[in-house]
Amino acid sequence: xxxxxxxxxxxxxxxxxxxxxxxxxxxxxxxxxxxxxxxxxxxxxxxxxxxxxxxxxxxxxxxxxxxxxxxxxxxxxxxxxxxxxxxxxxxxxxxxxxxxxxxxxxxxxxxxxxxxxxxxxxxxxxxxxxxxxxxxxxxxxxxxxxxxxxxxxxxxxxxxxxxxxxxxxxxxxxxxxxxxxxxxxxxxxxxxxxxxxxxxxxxxxxxxx
Length: 209
Prior knowledge:
- GO terms for molecular function: odorant binding.
- Pfam families: OBP47_like.
- Residues 86-197 form the OBP47-like domain.
- Residues 1-20 form the signal peptide.
- The protein is mainly α.
- The protein is 49% helix and 0% strand.
- Helix 4 crosses helix 9, helix 5 runs antiparallel to helix 6 (121-136) and helix 6 (121-136) packs across helix 9.
């Protein structure tokens, strides 16, 4: 099963139209969409056992009500590689990647990778480094998500009783892994390279504007 990337959500939440260090990258113009798993097939972290344990959460959330903006833009039915955030929350809780204190555990995530990504040591190493980087950014990511949730309360409603932190953290891991994808797994195409350059160069601002 291929990993998910909340590509559109990533653009909306984490990427800002800021200036880039590389003048060849225009951060005001995202590149043409290409499914990230077609560029870098990051493995899923759920094993068959974990999928069974978290099966009750493996269903798409109800779509938000129709508003003036028309139908929902992020319907999972149109993005089959997205794993529901409640499944990620369940997996991280069951494996203690997310501790009882609500803090992520790097060693537990490493142990999860040893089981779920055991056939790809190179990719697992990049994912572990990505997790460590994302843990370091967690406070900033939480603040960014809280800001977006305050402006779009329907996001919180769609989460139900699940914590969004695990899903947000896993999304970050996938973004960082995508940016640092091993050459052996990377699709060296013009579209994929343009997308990766955009993610590497265009940063969201520290002040949240």
